[in-house]
Write a structure and sequence with these properties.
about 475 residues, PPR_rpt, about 75% helix, Pentacotripeptide-repeat region of PRORP domain-containing protein, PPR_domain-containing
Length: about 475
């Protein structure tokens, strides 16, 4: 269990886990964790943990384990449960009361009071003892203790009462049938720096509703906003159900509507109870309005669909039945099962309109196919658009590169032509040079210059001697 956790648990960790296990009815696991805490981890015995475990044993009706745990703690504390050990006194008293040992229970209570006189006031211990007294016919003693606690309460120095103290006393007053006092206790919490929460209000509203005091319950509900407390789903359901039981169906429907508007989401069972009652009293339109409100918010089952469809069919509103069927088909999260389809066909068949559902289903299939085709077309258009954008970005770059390449080609052609011209010119010069060369004309440059005059060239060649010509060729 906790021994396998990546971090080493502290005594507080064990307290939290054991209380959670007890509150969720897992007493055996809680007891195992207590043994692990002491035997394996080596922590000192924690009276608060023993208190949680003893309370769990009381809830399960196991008085033997209550006393076993007390004796175990007593032994581990050196033979006497004192100091913060008094937190277990409430559980011990409940164990005695369970066995019918009222005298021993009150003797235990006397020891508890003596410890309190030594300045051992503890809200947790006090609340447990208060609860033991209230639930076992000792309300007067509980009231005396509560008044003493209020006198000793001096926050932040001395925290003797807390929210739990007031909740216990509210329950105690209700058990005594003193509902007006219960309401007063709840509403005066703030005088002692304790603020009631939603659970506190729900607890009292529940008890008032259960005892035929709906008007008083609504009064308490009306106080919630002023105390900064928000009603929850349970608050509204309590009031709705009680209104329905007292034939105040419109008020019950109003509480349901408030619940939805507040952001709370009722479950399907609550919705079904409301529309069922509305239909019973002939409020068909109101029932249908709640169906329209909740059909998208709740995961309705076939029975819920069938109930409202049958209601519409019974009053001759088959068009509404078809609309409901269409809504289910269009809702991607809903399932228009074969069973439900057959039910709808059966209702339509009563008026010879069975084929209308078949046509509706075919039309929906056609619409789905068209929508799919449009999706594919849109996807292709999107691809083409994206490609066009990319091409538009690339084109300027390509054009510039082409222009650069074209310019380079033109330059290359011009250079080639120029070289060719120089080469041709060079051949004429060479020929002229050879032709003009003679021993008396060794200046080639002059020969080139003179080469332009053909008559002078021919004369020069004619005048040359064989010896001059040979010399010129050897050169």
């Amino acid at each position: 269990m906790v021994n396998e956790a990546p971090l080493s648990p502290s005594p507080t960790t064990y307290r939290i886990m054991i209380k959670g296990l007890v509150d969720n009815g897992k007493l055996e696991k809680a007891l195992e964790l207590k043994d692990e805490m002491i035997a394996i981890k080596g922590f000192s015995p924690d009276p608060v943990i023993y208190h949680y475990l003893m309370v769990g044993c009381v809830r399960s009706g196991d008085s033997d384990s209550v006393f076993r745990l007390y004796e175990e703690l007593k032994e581990k504390m050196g033979g006497e449960v004192v100091g913060n050990g008094v937190v277990v006194y409430g559980g011990l008293m409940k164990g005695y009361f369970m066995r019918g040992m009222k005298k021993e229970a009150m003797e235990c209570y006397g020891e508890f009071l003596r410890e309190n006189l030594r300045g051992k006031w503890s809200a947790v211990a006090n609340n447990s003892v208060l609860d033991a007294l209230c639930k076992n016919g000792e309300f007067d003693e509980a009231l005396k203790l509560f008044e003493s606690m209020l006198r000793e309460h001096n926050p932040p120095k001395s925290l003797v009462v807390d929210l739990g103290s007031f909740n216990v006393m509210v329950d105690g007053y209700c058990l005594e049938g003193r509902y007006k006092d219960a309401i007063e206790v709840l509403l005066k919490m703030g005088d002692y720096r304790c603020n009631p929460d939603t659970l506190s209000f729900n607890n009292l509203i529940d008890q008032l509703c259960s005892n035929g005091m709906l008007v008083e319950a609504e009064t308490v509900y009306g106080e919630m906003d002023g105390k900064g407390v928000k009603p929850d789903e349970y608050t509204y359901v309590l009031l709705m159900d009680t209104c329905i039981k007292e034939n105040r169906i419109d008020d019950g429907a109003a509480y349901f509507r408030k619940m939805v508007e507040s952001g709370s989401r009722p479950n399907l069972a609550v919705y079904n109870r409301l529309v069922d009652e509305l239909v019973k009293v002939g409020k068909i339109d109101e029932a249908k309005s709640f169906y329209d409100m909740m059909v998208k918010k709740l995961k309705m089952d076939d029975e819920s669909y069938k109930f409202m469809m049958k209601t519409m069919s019974d009053v001759g509103k088959l068009d509404e039945v078809l609309k409901m069927a269409e809504g289910i088909i269009d809702d991607e999260e809903a399932e228009f099962s074969e069973e439900l389809q057959e039910f709808v066909k059966g209702e339509l068949r009563k008026d010879g309109r069975e084929e209308e559902l078949t046509k509706l289903l075919e039309e929906k299939e056609r619409q789905k196919a068209e929508a799919k085709a449009k999706e594919v077309e849109a996807a292709e258009a999107s691809k083409r658009s994206a490609k066009a954008v990319i091409n538009s970005l690339i084109s300027p770059i390509g054009k510039k590169e082409a222009e650069t390449e074209s310019g380079a080609n033109e330059n290359a052609i011009e250079a080639s032509l120029a070289n060719k011209g120089h080469a041709e010119k060079g051949e004429s010069v060479e020929e002229a040079t050879i032709a003009e060369f003679s021993p008396t004309h060794v200046n080639t440059e002059e020969g080139v210059n003179k080469g332009d005059d053909s008559d002078e060239t021919e004369a020069t060649i004619a005048e040359s001697s064989p010896t001059d010509a040979n010399t010129g060729r050897s050169n």
